[in-house]
């Protein structure tokens, strides 16, 4: 399994080459850059150029980017609306797709291979209209991403439209065989269970968001600090025909001292060896 570190671990800091170098020292083979403007300002030519230059000179892969969840630097705390491609208002859906495309444009300089996309928010319901909005968003974003060499990956969340079963329904109805799945283990643990999620999503799983929780809320803890059965989970993932990339996605609140991070990250990746 390819070892990938999500920069979600540093979400409250500006992403700079020093943090990428820390990821490389920790045993990561690639990174998933979290597109939040206070962290990775994809609208800044200077910030994009700085990271692009680093990736050109180093072996660490720009494996994926997580699409923005908010269009501001405060993650919505100042009142900015969420990036929601399933919103009932058409204008909000268009704004959401435009924001994701702004982030995607950075792939002209930073060679991301994948884009992880959220379909909606926690309160969104499941309906024929939801399917229509999801298909429109994935087709539109896919057409924008393809010339950039980027593949879309949809993530299971804790909402009705993003259960494993419903994600498969969306992809099958749209014949979107080129869209993969990012299986979030923490979200699956809270909802249908990891074993069931892997059974439903199967070979569509391209990447796995790795973090732990206690089964009731999305804590993004280090593996082993919650209640996920990691032995059973890793066995099920290794039984898939194509091994998905392991993307360690830990909360910034769990980062602690930077000097201790390489060992902690290496330990987490070691579970999947």
Describe the structure.
It is a single chain. The chain contains nine helices and eight strands. It is of the alpha/beta class. It has a single domain (3-270), classed as Divalent-metal-dependent TIM barrel enzymes (TIM Barrel). It has an eight-stranded parallel barrel, surrounded by four helices. The protein is globular, with a radius of gyration of 17 Å. The mean pLDDT is 96.
Radius of gyration, rounded?
Answer: 17 Å
Question: Roughly what percent helix?
Answer: 25-40%
Beta-strand percentage range: 5-15%
What low-confidence regions span 5 or more consecutive residues with pLDDT below 50?
none
Strand order, sheet with most strands: 1-2-3-4-5-6-7-8
Q: Which geometry do the CA atoms define?
A: globular
Largest sheet: 8 strands, parallel, barrel
CATH topology: TIM Barrel
Distance N terminus to C terminus?
8 Å
Order of helices and strands: EHEHEHEHEHEHHEHEH
Whole-number count of domains: 1
The CATH top-level class label: Alpha Beta
Name the average pLDDT: 96
Q: Class by helix and strand content?
A: alpha/beta
Compact description:
The chain has 273 residues and is of the alpha/beta class. It is 36% helix and 14% strand.
Question: What is the topological layout?
Answer:
Elements (H helix, E strand, L loop, with lengths): L2 E4 L10 H9 L4 E5 L10 H12 L4 E6 L23 H15 L9 E4 L10 H18 L5 E5 L8 H10 L6 E5 H6 L3 H8 L3 E6 L19 H9 L6 E4 L12 H10 L3
Parallel strand pairs: 1-2, 1-8, 2-3, 3-4, 4-5, 5-6, 6-7, 7-8
């Amino acid at each position: 399994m390819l070892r990938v570190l999500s920069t979600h671990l540093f979400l409250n800091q500006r992403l700079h080459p020093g943090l990428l170098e820390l990821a490389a020292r920790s045993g990561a083979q690639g990174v998933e850059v979290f597109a939040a403007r206070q962290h990775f300002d994809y609208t800044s030519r200077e910030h994009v150029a700085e990271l692009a230059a680093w990736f050109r000179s180093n072996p660490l892969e720009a494996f994926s980017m997580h699409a923005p969840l908010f269009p501001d630097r405060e993650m919505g705390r100042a009142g900015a609306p969420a990036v929601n491609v399933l919103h009932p208002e058409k204008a909000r859906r268009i704004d959401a797709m435009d924001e994701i495309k702004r982030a995607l444009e950075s792939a002209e300089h930073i060679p991301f291979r994948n884009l992880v996309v959220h379909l909606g928010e926690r309160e969104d319901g499941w309906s024929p209209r939801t399917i229509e909005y999801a298909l429109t968003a994935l087709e539109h974003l896919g057409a924008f991403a393809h010339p950039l060499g980027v593949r879309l990956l949809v993530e299971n969340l804790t909402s009705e439209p993003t259960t494993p079963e419903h994600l498969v329904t969306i992809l099958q109805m749209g014949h979107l065989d080129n869209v993969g799945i990012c299986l979030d283990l923490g979200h699956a643990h809270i909802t249908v269970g990891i074993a069931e999620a892997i059974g439903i999503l199967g070979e569509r799983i391209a990447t796995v968001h790795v973090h732990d929780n206690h089964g009731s809320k999305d804590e993004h803890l280090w593996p082993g600090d919650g209640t996920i059965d990691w032995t059973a989970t890793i066995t099920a993932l290794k039984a898939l025909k194509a091994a998905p990339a392991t993307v360690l996605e830990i909360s910034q609140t769990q980062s602690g001292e930077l000097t201790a991070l390489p060992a902690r990250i290496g330990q987490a990746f070691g579970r999947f060896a």
